[in-house]
Amino acid sequence: MELRHLRYFLVVAEEGQFTRAASRLAMQQPPLSQQIRLLEEEIGFELFERLPRGVVLTPAGKAFAQDAQRIIDGLQQSVERAARIARGELGTILIGLTSSASFHPLTTEAIREFRRLHPDVGIDLVELNAAEINERLAGGLVHVAFLRKPVELPPGLSFEVLEEEPMVVALPEDHPTLAGKQGRQADIALRALADEPFILVRRPGAPGMYADILTVCREAGFSPNVVREVPRMLSGIKLVSTGIGIALVPASMQRYNQAGVVYRRLKKPHVLTAPLTLSFPTTQQNGAASRFVEFVLGQFRQRPK
Known about the structure:
Layout: H1 3-15, H2 18-24, H3 29-43, E1 48-51, E2 54-57, H4 59-86, E3 91-97, H5 99-102, H6 105-117, E4 121-127, H7 130-138, E5 144-147, E6 157-172, H8 180-183, E7 197-201, H9 207-219, E8 225-230, H10 233-241, E9 247-250, E10 261-265, E11 273-281, H11 287-300
Parallel strand pairs: 3-4, 3-5, 7-8
Antiparallel strand pairs: 1-2, 5-11, 6-9, 6-10, 6-11
Helix pairs in contact: 1-2, 1-4
């Protein structure tokens, strides 16, 4: 039995006549009559009672027509649902985030606005470091990601910088440079941090930013004294609050209101910036993820300051 046989049968049942049904199906009446007869032979019972001026369904034919219509309707719904998935109007996106990227307002704004425009697309979030993001993107375990600086640029993955933001110094609130009203407001020269204990995110997890911090410190005339390496930037800020050391973090991390921590800007010319990068497979199999990437790049890439 083929699907077309069910369609032929339902049209004949609706029209009550082979001639009108054949016209509606854009075919000749004899082949249509033959197809219905073959269907009846296959299932083992008559679907129609043949009358001088048409046909009517037999009791078995009526029951068969109900089930056949459900099959056709279900198939059409499946096709429409699959088409929506292919167009990116339906489905689920798994988005990877580094901890610092999750604090950037652009990240939350992009996800929130996309959800408003595409309410039928589900979004799941997972926090990872930059190294894990590359691995999971390549393995298809994450569809798209927001991170700072990629570990590397492997083939098959695309990286688009959405925005550059300045980095600031996170200091314990009792740090000597914060003494007095002016001390809490003035920018800090990077060279003034030469003797400070630094807290950095571990090199394997964020080698790009780790290297940038070392480079800018050397340009300022010193090598930082790294006393702690942490798995996440939030962990570093928590350690700053205990007085163990200082950290250089993206300015948007100030939104994490950790008690005991004060943030200060760096003086020029040694201004350090942190990119916010969108990463995704160059060939994307997930239609909803492709639509998300297109939306983010169209709305947020190279936004005016």
